[in-house]
Amino acid sequence: MSEFNKPLVTHIYTADPSAHVFDGKIYIYGSHDLENEGLDDGKGDHFKMMDYHVLSLDDIGAPCVDHGEALHVKDVPWASGRMWAPDAAFKNGKYYFYFPAQDKNGIFRIGAAVGDKPMGPFKAEPNYIEGSYSIDPAVLTDDDNKTYMYCGGLWGGQLEKWRTGEFIRGDETKTAGYDGPQGDEPAMCPWVAELNDDMVSFKTKPQEVKILDENGEFLKASDTDRRFFEAPCVHKFGGKYYLSYSTGDTHFIQYAESDNPLGPFTYKGKVLEPVIGWTNHHYITEYKGKWYLFYHDSSMSDGVTHLRCIKYTELNIAPDGTITTVNAYEG
Ligand code: FUB
User: Fold this and answer.
1) How far does the chain reach from its first CA to its final CA, in angstroms?
2) Nearest 10 degrees: CA dihedral of 132, 136, 139, 140?
3) What is the pLDDT of residues 220-240, one digit of tens each?
4) What average pLDDT score do residues 120-141 get?
5) Which of 128, 145, 204, 245 could covalently link to 194 via disulfide, CB atoms 3.0 to 4.6 Å apart?
6) Mean pLDDT in residue range 25-50
7) CB 245 near ligand 1, within 6 Å
8) What angle do CA 192, 193, 199 make, to 5 degrees?
9) What is the pLDDT of residue 134?
10) β-bridge partners, 55
């Protein structure tokens, strides 16, 4: 398909896709990267993101439509900036938009905003979701109509700063400000919480989503090729749950499998090889019986980390759930 592995749009920089089928069309919810002089300090200061645009495809291969600004940080009472990777859901006749942003104290929280149409505009709730923290929310509504939010990201995403249950202000001068588990210690994992029926508050407290290796042991912090870093995404296939995620500084998208949406998940394989640019962030979506991988790279800016473009391609999933690894630049 000629539209595969090409920027969805070229008039703005876009990143961090999530994709959902609403009213028969594919809606893509992503970040909007802005030009910024700031250097990469490992804490994400180079990412300048103030608002969100919703994109859509009438079908696979159709031209991509930019529906314009759906939410701006100036309309989010609790947020100070850094509108990073979002996601969206539909329930009870309303569309819900979820986004991370830093609060007035520089701490990442997850916000919710509500709209009547899939492309927005969305009206932000007055406060962030009580109990939420870190970045990269991804939502899954299960067949029993329960909705779960998966979340987390290391370094600039601050996940390791919550490992005691409270936000620990670490040595912010360290490279990447990272003061989480090291070596043989269990790696940090994302968290999951069930949403209430109102879709803007948690029914359960965030709990760790365990990711185990083939021996049933936690993936280790030193296992940087496989351990969780950021960008969780969960899809359901053949009655099982698949958690895919970015390994951050080793730049892979990996995945793990479970019988339960809350985990534990067992490592299964690699979804996507590294792409042009530092970050790797994806979403797995079914449309008309086929599976698609939405991802981004920095090809449109010749490799500038914080100026990215969303692309997509078909994903091959075998009947047992095994995913054929994608190399975005081959085949
Ligand atoms: O876009 C900012 C951050 O970069 C996202 O939150 C991460 O997933 C990475 O893509």
Assistant:
1) 11
2) -120
3) 999 999 999 999 999 999 999
4) 98
5) 204
6) 83
7) no
8) 130
9) 97
10) 28, 66
Sign of CA dihedral 284, 279, 159, 136: negative
* The amino acid at 288: K
Whether pLDDT at 173 is above 60: no
CA 205 to chain centre: 20
Q: Are strands 211-212 and 230-237 parallel, antiparallel or unpaired?
A: unpaired
Separation between Cα atoms, residue 140 and residue 89, nearest integer Å: 8
3-state secondary structure 278-326: CCCCEEEEEECCEEEEEEEECHHHCCCCCCCEEEEEEECECCCCCECCE
Q: Which two tokens stand for residue 276?
A: 């042009």
Average pLDDT along the chain: 95
Distance CA 189, CA 18 (A): 20
Is the CB of 15 within 6 Å of ligand 1?
yes
Q: Are 112 and 49 in contact (CB under 8 A)?
A: no
Q: How far is residue 315's CA from residue 132's CA, in Å, rounded to a whole number?
A: 31
Summarize the confidence of residues 51-59 as an average pLDDT.
98
Name the closest-CA residue to atom 4, ligand 1: 279
DSSP 8-state secondary structure symbol assigned to residue 257 = E
Separation CA 122–CA 98 (nearest Å): 10
* 281 CB near ligand 1 (under 6 Å): yes
**CA 84 to centroid of ligand 1, rounded, Å:** 6
Give CA–CA dist 200/32, Å, rounded. 23
